[in-house]
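Take a specimen:
=====
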Amino acid sequence: MLSNYFNKMRGTTKSPPSVNLPEIIWSWIGAFLGISTVALISYKVLEGKGLTMIIGSFGASAVLIYGAVKSPLAQPRNLLGGHVFSALIGVTSYQLFQPHIWFASAIAVATAIAVMHATKTLHPPGGATALIAVIGGESVHKLGYLYAVIPTAVGASIMLLVALLVNNIPKTRRYPEFWL
């Protein structure tokens, strides 16, 4: 019985195939343009206004929407819904449990995963978005529920727009696979 448990950790499939150079280049271009657009707005337009447009979880989103364009986790519904639901959950968790940051952190991420599953919006960076709402510091906490709009919804929407434009340039790529 115990050996069956440990045997499951051996895996069941082979490593994925290598990615060709054009795919690597298009992933790089998309990630560069997506993150640079969001960062440029954040640092050149919003800086000094108490707002931000860029959060760490967008780096992980970039991997999915520019580097794994066929993944169900990279589709627009998942990108937008996963981030926004998780942001709302993270802010709520912080506001309810802020004296106990360890608990607020755990409940935010666990609840975000459950809600993303239930709404078919599973997007792994959403877990980080929820966690950032809890541990992001005073500048994030001051945003309150605005955090779900800016940086989260607006930033993810900008990255989605870049993904739609860039990922459909080469004949070998298509994005999205589905919307809803």
